[in-house]
Design goal:
Elements (H helix, E strand, L loop, with lengths): L3 H19 L4 H4 L8 E3 L3 H4 L5 E11 L9 E4 L2 E3 L3 E12 L8 H18 L2 E2 L15 E5 L4 H10 L8 E10 L6 E2 L20
Parallel strand pairs: 1-2
Antiparallel strand pairs: 2-5, 3-4, 4-9, 5-8, 6-7, 7-8
């Protein structure tokens, strides 16, 4: 499966959106049945701000998870092994997109949104089972969500790259997200029997 990245993004978007729609302080902004117009989007913050307010869950970096990269291939038969998936760590920038020029309570609303997002991702630090969406739905996958501690210099360089003024934001890492190999199982030396060996502990010789 090469759609795990998209599926993980859909999982985060739906998880955050459900929480914001049910939050007593934010329902009026995010629940359309209550007149809310804010959305949770995978667009970059400046792209979302063109037409909407809400929350940007922007995937800004993907890297390999080196700790699990070199796991041994799994045997799927007595003479076949399956290549291990490519393990990835995904990094998301979470940005409240609020028009502070039109809203007197804009800064307070931004902070309220950030607090609610932190709450739901803290409560779902492991994504699994019913949390999963897209092609991950129904799978046995488990992924860990971790709040990243980016320093001021890292955040400033990020916003400079976006040609955008510094803004309240969070960064989250999700791991491990697997990209399955497209190769067929490879031939391997058959395993017919496993012969356990036993040994006896010899007493130490006195000097």
């Amino acid at each position: 499966m090469n759609t795990a990245i998209r599926a993980l993004s859909l999982t985060l978007r739906e998880l955050v959106a459900q929480h914001l729609r049910s939050d007593a302080n934010l329902r009026g902004f995010f629940d359309s049945s209550s007149g809310g117009t804010m959305v949770v989007s995978l667009l970059a913050p400046e792209e979302l701000a063109v037409e909407h307010e809400g929350v940007s869950l922007w995937l800004y970096r993907i890297e390999r998870d080196d700790q699990t990269l070199n796991l041994a291939p799994r045997r799927v038969g007595r003479d076949r092994v399956l290549n291990e998936p490519l393990p990835l760590k995904l990094h998301y920038l979470v940005v409240p997109v609020v028009d502070v020029k039109l809203r007197v309570d804009g800064p307070e609303l931004e902070q309220n949104i950030v607090g609610a997002v932190m709450q739901v991702l803290y409560d779902h630090a492991v994504l699994r089972g019913a949390d999963l969406r897209g092609d991950l739905q129904g799978s046995s996958q488990e992924m860990n969500v971790r709040l990243e501690q980016l320093d001021l210099d890292q955040m400033s360089r990020m916003w400079d790259a976006l040609s955008h003024a510094f803004q309240l934001c969070l960064s989250y890492e999700v791991s491990v997200v697997p990209i399955d190999s497209a190769l067929q199982p490879q031939p391997a030396t058959p395993v017919d029997t496993v012969m356990p060996t036993y040994g006896l502990a010899a007493p130490e010789k006195s000097s």
